[in-house]
Design goal:
Radius of gyration of chain B: 18 Å
Largest interface: A-B, 47 and 44 residues
Number of helices of chain B: 5
Number of strands of chain A: 2
Strand order of the largest sheet of chain A: 1-2
CATH architecture of chain B: 3-Layer(aba) Sandwich
Oligomer: heterodimer
Number of domains of chain A: 1
Structural class of chain B: alpha+beta
Distance between the termini of chain A: 27 Å
Strand content of chain B: 15-25%
Strand content of chain A: under 5%
Largest sheet of chain B: 4 strands, mixed
Order of helices and strands of chain A: EHHHEHHH
Order of helices and strands of chain B: HHEHEHEEH
Distance between the termini of chain B: 67 Å
Helix content of chain A: over 70%
Shape of chain B: elongated
Chain lengths: 154, 153
């Protein structure tokens, strides 16, 4: 008894590259918080957006990993599907966008809180490999598809 | 320097550290159903919901039910590990459920994360549940206790 695999989901990425990208993302977001720079946050938003929309092959931090780091480490011992981390990039882009709106409209508290939320997700991913953006997915589906819930409140 | 930014940074670092500790301590750990809220009621609910999905624990010594989503890296690796374990353990049954197409069951079982796994013995007793990639040693121990390598059917 099983659910058929998604055939289009065959694209794989090196998990070591994802961890490095999470560390770089964390560093940039720390710098955004310290400087309050909307411009720097816009750069990170672009990085998130490229990964989410174009795919992780084109994600800037992933390119850095492949060109500068991977040749020194050798081939990966394991690979993982691109879908989950790519979805997480989209979640990160959402937070970065909210933060950017905050910084750009004179609401630095909004900017900092949204940036801080993205930083927590990036740091958790960097230190433990845990993908907070991925975890949000099922909760969001549970919450948004509530019309079929009938008498069972979530 | 941004004053607000420094405060938020401090909070974010603290939350990240606590989150990382939580992940290390709890992620993938099997929880016994009796210790969770609901006790006997949770047993009955879980059994009836799983039965509603067409799952019959009486068909194997140990039945492992995994709820997965598409955006879940550890789901794949967990599935591969269990399918690998099945090759040497004839008493182990493995059922894979796509959480997104069974959202009612997901709510009733209070599945919040994927992968979430339920472990049932042949009598239908819920042995426990776990969320996150199960810990290999814990999974092996559970399987050894109920569906050992090369064990009878």
């Amino acid at each position: 008894m099983t659910i058929p695999a998604r055939p289009a989901d065959a694209r794989q990425v090196d998990p070591r590259g994802l961890r490095l990208a999470a560390w770089l993302t964390s560093a940039v977001l720390v710098a955004v918080l310290l400087t309050g720079s909307g411009v720097l946050l816009a750069v990170q938003l672009a990085v998130f957006a490229v990964g989410a929309l174009a795919g992780l092959r084109y994600a800037p931090y992933g390119l850095l990993f492949r060109v500068l780091v991977a040749p020194r480490l050798g081939p990966p011992t394991e690979r993982e599907a691109e879908g989950p981390p790519r979805f997480a990039q989209a979640v990160g882009a959402g937070f970065a966008l909210v933060g950017l709106v905050g910084y750009a409209t004179g609401l630095p508290v909004l900017g900092a809180v949204a940036t801080g939320a993205a930083l927590v997700a990036a740091l958790l991913n960097a230190t433990t490999g845990f993908c907070l953006g991925c975890e949000v997915y099922l909760l969001a589906r549970r919450a948004t598809a509530s019309r079929s819930a009938g008498p069972h409140p979530a | 320097m941004s004053g607000v930014g420094v405060v938020v940074l401090g909070v974010a670092l603290l939350v990240s550290a606590l989150g990382a500790l939580w992940v290390r301590a709890r992620d993938g750990a099997v929880r016994a159903p009796m210790s969770s809220v609901g006790g006997q009621g949770a047993q009955v609910t879980t059994q009836s919901v799983l039965a509603g999905l067409g799952i019959d624990p009486g068909a194997a010594d140990l039945t492992v039910v995994q709820f997965s989503t598409a955006f879940c890296a550890p789901c794949r690796q967990t599935r591969a590990r269990l399918q690998q374990m099945q090759t040497s353990r004839p008493g182990l049954a493995y059922v894979h459920v796509d959480a997104e197409s069974h959202l009612d069951e997901v709510r009733r079982l209070d599945v919040r994360r994927t992968p979430t796994l339920f472990y049932l013995d042949r009598a239908g007793t819920l042995l426990g549940r776990s969320s996150g990639a199960p810990r290999p040693a814990e999974l092996e121990a559970l399987a050894d206790a109920h569906a050992p390598v090369g064990g009878g059917r």
